[in-house]
Amino acid sequence: MIYVPTAMYAFRKDSNSSPGKQLQRAKADGRKRRQKVIDHLQESLTLPISVVTYDIKTSTITNPTTVPSTTSSLPSLPSNTSQLLTWNPHIIYIDGGNTFHLHNTLRTSPLKPFLLTYSNIYIGVSAGSIICGSRIRTSLWKGLDDPTIVDEEFPGMYDWENEEGLGLEGEEFFMHYDDKWKEIYEENRSEGTVKIGEDECWCSDVRGII
Fold this sequence. Notes:
Number of strands: 9
Number of domains: 1
Oligomer: single chain
Strand content: 15-25%
Strand order of the largest sheet: 3-2-1-4-5
Order of helices and strands: EHEEHEHHEHHEHEEE
GO molecular function: serine-type peptidase activity
Distance between the termini: 15 Å
Helix content: 25-40%
Radius of gyration: 17 Å
Largest sheet: 5 strands, mixed
CATH architecture: 3-Layer(aba) Sandwich
Number of helices: 7
Keywords: Hydrolase, Protease, Serine protease
Structural class: alpha/beta
């Protein structure tokens, strides 16, 4: 499995912590989230599990792990992006965070064309789900994701209202839906907008799992 925590590494302007401190905390949070995924897979599967963490922005691989640790029959884990792209993992797990940061880092990443042709299981959480749609404008509706962290670095590059996603599945996804977002959802949705609540998911037997 490739675990991608890049979206949660985005700088938050509303934080009193320095960028370095924010990143340190985000990485610690990412490790905890990754472990929860591993624990869940171990409960569900009887097979050994190999996992690497991949940060799209820096193209770095960290924390290569195989569980149980006594397993010796599996191929070596990738140590760089080139090896990662030929590894053909059974699962790619892209975690949540700032959708705009995630989308921008994917723009020039070799992981993007890899995702477009990937045929195994894709699991996206929050931002990781939103980027799968044909559009990512739903990230604007709540005002919780800050697009200016990208716009200030790349002025004029993006029209977020019309920016295209990966187009892997569905038109657009509105995540973490509950009644408090009903009015915003109804005002902005189109015929193809899919709302997904906290305990819900969108599954496809063609492209994988969101």
